UniProtKB/TrEMBL annotation:
InterPro entries: GH, GH_1_N_CS, Glyco_hydro_1, Glyco_hydro_1_AS, Glyco_hydro_1_beta-glucosidase. The keyword Hydrolase applies. This is Beta-glucosidase. Keywords: Carbohydrate metabolism, Cellulose degradation, Glycosidase, Hydrolase, Polysaccharide degradation. PANTHER family: GLYCOSYL HYDROLASE, LP05116P. NCBIfam families: BGL. It comes from the Bacteria. The active site is at E383 (nucleophile). Belongs to the glycosyl hydrolase 1 family. GO terms for molecular function: beta-galactosidase activity. It is an enzyme of class 3 (hydrolase). Its EC number is 3.2.1.21.
Length: 479
C-alpha cells in the first residue's frame, strides 16, 4: 500500500506537509551580528584580532558594528515573531561573558542574553543557545588556543557559567558550531581566525575541541534542569568521488575521516577511526589524547545538529593537485592534513554567490547516512541557506527568487528523508540577517532579512515572506 506521504514525496511539484511539531527556526552567530565589540566589558576575540589584521578580511571589514544586534535585538526579535518562527538559534559571545576566558562572568554580558531569551519566550520563540561559534577570547589564544588542553578545560568552566545564568530560560544547548572549521580552517589553512597554518596544531585543536565538547556537556548536565537538551552542531561533509575508480573511492574515505569521523567517532562512538590515525601517522602519534579523554568526549546527546550547504567532490592525485576547490577559501596551506594526494573538484551545475554548487541531493544522502550510522539519534538541520547578490530595488523591495528555489529544494530533500524514515525534527534557515561573513566581510549576503549596513535598516526579502508561509502552514508548496 502506498501512503499519502509517499505519494506526495514522489511528485516533485506537489505540496509537502511536514510532521506536526516540526520545529521551524532561523540562526545567527554572535560575532557576525552583535557588534558592540568593546562595550560592557567585552574584550577581543580571535576574530576581532584576525579581522583587524590587514589582508585577512575582504575590504578590511570587521565585526566591530556588524548588524548592531546588541542594540537592535528587540527589533530583530520582533521580526522573528512577524515571520512566525518557532525557534531562534544564536550563539553566546564567550568574551562578552568571560572576557579573559577565565574567572567570573560579567553580569552585563549575561544580562544581554537574559533579556534576549526573555523576549523570545514572551513571543513564543524557543531560544536555542550555542556556546561556541568561533569567537575564542584572544587571551586564551595567546596562551596557546585550541591546540592546548587547557582551552578545553576553560571551555567547560565557561559552559558552567552560561548554564547557571541562563538554564532557567534556555532549554536547548549546543556546545560547538562546526568544530571542523575552528580546527582546520583556523589552525590548518589559516583562512579563519586565528590564522595559524600548522597541520599538527590543526589535529591537536580538533582533539581539544572534542574534549571541550565532552567536558561542556558534563558541565551542562550537572547544572541544567532534567528536561534540558544538549547537542553539538557539525558541518558534515557529503563527500563524493569524481569517478568510480578505487583510488577516488579511497580519496573519499580519507577526506571523510578528516572532515566527519574525526568528530563523530569520538563524540558519538567513543573512538577515533583507525584509518584517520594511520593516515596522519607521519604527522603525529596522537599522544595528545590522554587516558580517559575518549570517555569524557563520548557523552549522551539529545540530538545532532547538521549544517549543510553543498557537496564535496574529490579524486586521487599524485600530490601535485590543489585543495583550493574545496569551497573553504584559498590558501597556500591545506586544511586537510595527511591528504596531500587528494584533489578537490567543483561540483557541476548552478552555484551560489559563494561559488558553492546547489545540490539538495547531497542533503538527502547525508541525512540517510546519518540515520544509518546513528539510528537512535534525532537530527535537526541547524544551518542551511545560500548567499546571492541581493539588492534593494527603487521601491525598497528585495526579491531573491534564487534563494527561494534553493530553500525549497533543500526542504524537499528534508521532507523526502523524513518520508523515508529519517528522524529529522527541525530546520533552521541560515541566516536570519545579512551579516559579517567571516573572511568575506560584508560582501556575501545569506540573510532572509536584508540589512542596509550604513543605516542598519532591516528589509525582509521575498524569501523571508515565502519562508514565513512555510513556517506558519507546515507545508512546503510545490514549485
Amino acid at each position: 500500500m502506498v501512503t499519502a506521504a509517499q505519494q506526495t514525496a514522489s511528485a516533485p511539484d506537489a505540496a509537502r506537509t511536514f510532521p506536526k511539531g516540526f520545529l521551524w527556526g532561523s540562526a545567527t552567530a554572535s560575532y557576525q551580528i552583535e557588534g558592540a565589540a568593546a562595550e560592557d566589558g567585552r574584550t577581543p576575540s580571535i576574530w576581532d584580532t584576525y579581522a583587524r589584521t590587514p589582508g585577512r578580511v575582504r575590504n578590511g571589514d570587521t565585526g566591530d558594528t556588524a548588524t548592531d544586534h546588541y542594540h537592535r535585538w528587540r527589533e530583530d526579535v520582533a521580526l522573528m515573531a512577524e515571520l512566525g518562527l518557532g525557534a531562534y538559534r544564536f550563539s553566546l559571545a564567550w568574551p562578552r561573558i568571560q572576557p579573559t576566558g577565565r574567572g567570573p562572568a560579567v553580569q552585563k554580558g549575561l544580562d544581554f542574553y537574559r533579556r534576549l531569551a526573555d523576549d523570545l519566550l514572551d513571543k513564543g520563540i524557543q531560544p536555542v543557545a550555542t556556546l561556541y561559534h568561533w569567537d575564542l577570547p584572544q587571551e586564551l589564544e595567546d596562551a596557546g588556543g585550541w591546540p592546548e588542553r587547557a582551552t578545553a578545560e576553560r571551555f567547560a568552566e565557561y559552559a558552567a557559567l552560561a548554564a547557571d545564568a541562563l538554564g532557567d530560560r534556555v532549554k536547548t544547548w549546543t556546545t560547538l558550531n562546526e568544530p571542523w572549521c575552528s580546527a582546520f580552517l583556523g589552525y590548518g589553512s589559516g583562512v579563519h581566525a586565528p590564522g595559524r597554518t600548522d597541520p599538527v596544531s590543526a589535529l591537536r585543536a580538533a582533539h581539544h575541541l572534542n574534549l571541550g565538547h565532552g567536558l561542556a556537556v558534563q558541565a551542562l548536565r550537572d547544572r541544567l534542569p532534567a528536561d534540558a537538551r544538549c547537542s553539538v552542531t557539525l558541518n558534515i561533509h557529503q563527500v563524493r568521488p569524481l569517478t568510480a575508480d578505487d583510488a577516488d573511492t579511497d580519496a573519499v574515505r580519507r577526506i571523510d575521516a578528516l572532515a566527519n569521523r574525526v568528530f563523530t567517532g569520538p563524540m558519538l562512538q567513543g573512538a577515533y577511526p583507525e584509518d584517520l590515525l594511520k593516515d596522519t601517522a607521519e604527522l603525529t602519534d596522537w599522544s595528545f589524547v590522554h587516558d580517559g579523554d575518549l570517555k569524557r568526549i563520548h557523552q549522551p546527546l539529545d540530538f545532532l545538529g547538521v549544517n549543510y550547504y553543498t557537496p564535496t567532490v574529490v579524486s586521487a592525485t599524485d600530490g601535485s593537485g590543489t585543495h583550493t576547490s574545496d569551497g573553504h577559501g584559498r590558501s597556500a596551506h591545506s586544511p586537510w592534513p595527511g591528504a596531500d594526494k587528494v584533489a578537490f573538484h567543483q561540483p557541476p551545475g548552478e552555484t551560489t554567490a559563494m561559488g558553492w554548487a546547489v545540490d539538495p541531493t547531497g542533503l538527502y544522502d547525508l541525512l540517510r547516512r546519518l540515520a544509518a550510522d546513528f539510528p537512535r539519534l534525532p537530527l535537526y538541520i541547524t544551518e542551511n541557506g545560500a548567499a546571492f547578490d541581493d539588492y534593494a530595488d527603487p521601491s525598497g523591495q528585495v526579491n531573491d527568487p534564487a534563494r527561494i528555489a534553493y530553500v525549497r529544494g533543500h526542504l524537499a530533500a528534508v521532507h523526502r528523508a523524513i518520508v523515508d524514515g529519517v528522524d529529522v525534527r527541525g530546520y533552521f534557515l541560515w541566516s536570519l540577517l545579512d551579516n559579517f561573513e567571516w573572511a568575506h566581510g560584508y560582501s556575501k549576503r545569506f540573510g532572509a532579512v536584508y540589512v542596509d549596513y550604513p543605516t542598519g535598516t532591516r528589509i525582509p526579502k521575498a524569501s523571508a515572506r515565502w519562508y514565513s508561509g512555510v513556517v506558519r502552514s507546515g507545508v512546503l508548496p510545490g514549485a
